[in-house]
Amino acid sequence: MRKRDFFFGEVYEGSGGATLRLSDMEPLARKVSAEFFTAQLNRILKEHDGQLTLSDGTSYPSF
Predict the structure, then answer these.
(1) Residue 52's beta-bridge partner residues?
(2) Can you state the angle between helices 22-31 and 34-47, rounded to 10 degrees?
(3) Is residue 62 predicted with pLDDT exceeding 70?
(4) What is the DSSP letter of 62?
(5) Beta bridge pairs of residue 13
(6) Edge to edge, what strands does the sheet with 2-5 contain?
(7) What is the pLDDT of residue 45?
(8) DSSP letter at 50?
(9) Where do the H-state alpha helices sit in 1-63?
(10) How large is the average pLDDT for residues 21-37?
């Protein structure tokens, strides 16, 4: 199921918690302070019982 989050945008929700696209994280992190970004990660972790997956859609991410 997809959910629209005010900060992260599209969040995929399933029995294993939430999934966010890794490629969306870097631009978001550059737009806000480290403290705000960390607070948003903690918020989404709390909403999904501490389960969060960052997916790149490949087994060979660019980092």
Answers:
(1) 18
(2) 140
(3) no
(4) -
(5) 18
(6) 2-5, 9-14, 17-21, 52-55
(7) 95
(8) T
(9) 22-31, 34-47
(10) 94
- The pair of three-digit structure tokens given for residue 21, joined into one six-digit string: 């696209």
Query: For residue 51, what are its two tokens?
Result: 């389960």
> For residue 6, what are its two tokens?
């005010």
Q: Which two tokens stand for residue 10?
A: 């599209």
The two three-digit tokens of residue 26, written as one number: 């870097």
Pairing outcome for strands 17-21 and 9-14: antiparallel
pTM of the model: 0.81
As given in the structure block, the two tokens for residue 53 are 């997956």
Nearest to 29 by CA among 12, 58, 8, 60: 8
Tokens of 44: 């989404």
Task: Copy the structure tokens of residue 33.
Answer: 């302070």
